[in-house]
Amino acid sequence: xxxxxxxxxxxxxxxxxxxxxxxxxxxxxxxxxxxxxxxxxxxxxxxxxxxxxxxxxxxxxxxxxxxxxxxxxxxxxxxxxxxxxxxxxxxxxxxxxxxxxxxxxxxxxxxxxxxxxxxxxxxxxxx
Length: 127
Fold this sequence. Notes:
It is built from 6 helices and no strands. By secondary structure, the chain is mainly α. The chain has one domain (about 1-125). Helix 1 runs antiparallel to helix 2, helix 1 (about 1-25) crosses helix 6 and helix 2 runs antiparallel to helix 6 (about 105-125). The radius of gyration is 22 Å and the shape is elongated. The two termini are about 40 Å apart. About 20% of the residues are buried. The model has no long low-confidence stretch (mean pLDDT about 80).
């Protein structure tokens, strides 16, 4: 648990640092505006990637994979019978209930939420 908190802080801090560097190179006249914009871009990227990893890890697309396998299996039944034996029904049903575990899901998602919150607060301060 401590490792995930540390990783979240490292991801958030390094993206804030990179956003600061990007803002310096974009121009010194509107530093805070460029900083908030680039920070929000990082937040959006982390929320999208972390959200996709969360949805994939919960097994949301497993039923779609199972349906496509059955569809293509019935279309190529004769060729498949010649190549390999029939899998048991339990093995095929295991595809539906399988979940995946990604170690970086929560740190990336929480970093994105933290950066989005900070960029929202800072955007109200510059207006």
